[in-house]
Amino acid sequence: MTRWSDAAGKDSGESCHARMAAFAASGQDVHGEADFVTSLLAAGGRVLDAGCGTGRVAVELGVRGFDVVAVDVDASMLAVARRTAPTLTWLERDLATLDHAEPALAGGFDVVLVAGNVVPLLSEGTEADVVRRLASCLRPHGLLVAGFGTDLGHLPLDDVPVALEDYDAWCAQAGLVLRERFLTWDREPFRAEQGYAVSVHEHRT
Ligand SMILES: C[S@@+](CC[C@H](N)C(=O)[O-])C[C@H]1O[C@@H](n2cnc3c(N)ncnc32)[C@H](O)[C@@H]1O
Fold first, then answer.
1. d(CA 98, CA 110)
2. How far is the CA of 96 from the centre of ligand 1 (A)?
């Protein structure tokens, strides 16, 4: 049971999809994460979208010419993703048991993206291991890119389960070094009191 399934319930795929479609229709930018990855990586680069949900980011990255593999544990979210982009690689996997040696993941990734509050929505107690597993999917000098809330205003939860200091410590244990941190996906300077962080950690070992 992930914190996501606790908060969103079993059949969240269609409702999430409808909410995101309404955002896009109202003129809001729903591609900040894709723009951020595009700024880091040449076209054709390989991206793992970890906790891809309905595929909001993975589909856009595929359209932009990246080689994308997308993973989520929630079947209702993946059903929407598969319907939207049947030819992308969608894997129903729990990040807490992800195996970098499985054929679809072998060869590693230039970027592992963990967007949309996935880190605080993991199952309690699995976070450090998930970060270690994601790091093991990176190529040398590959980047782990994560965006998540650090206050209640930026989380769909009743508490704040993950502090940035903890996340940085899990990354360090996994051999990752903090390269950059921003407040937003469009690179506003990071300010801890604002309650959101976009972190870029590099695989240096
Ligand atoms: C708020 S949604 C974000 C979806 C997508 N990244 C986006 O930004 O549109 C959080 C997603 O994290 C996924 N998730 C949470 N824990 C997970 C786990 N242990 N393994 C795989 N996916 C997980 C949920 O199933 C859900 O689809």
1. 17
2. 12
147 lines ligand 1 (CB under 6 A): no
Tell me how far CA of residue 39 lies from CA of 34, 61, 186, 194, in angstroms.
Answer: 9, 12, 10, 24
Residues 6+ away with beta carbon under 8 Å from 151: 160, 195, 196
Provide the 10 A C-beta neighbour count for residue 62.
20
Q: What is the pTM of this model?
A: 0.97
Which atom of ligand 1 is least distant from the CA of 98? 20
Q: Is 190 helix (H, G, I), strand (E, B) or coil?
A: coil
* pLDDT given at position 186: 97
155 lines ligand 1 (CB under 6 A): no
Q: Whose CA is nearest to atom 26 of ligand 1?
A: 53
- Walk along the chain (205 residues) in steps of 10 and give the mean pLDDT of each run: 91 91 92 98 96 97 98 97 97 98 97 98 98 98 98 96 97 98 98 97 89
Distance CA 124, CA 174 (A): 18
Contact between residue 121 and residue 51 where contact means Cβ atoms under 8 Å apart: yes
Residue 205: what pLDDT?
66
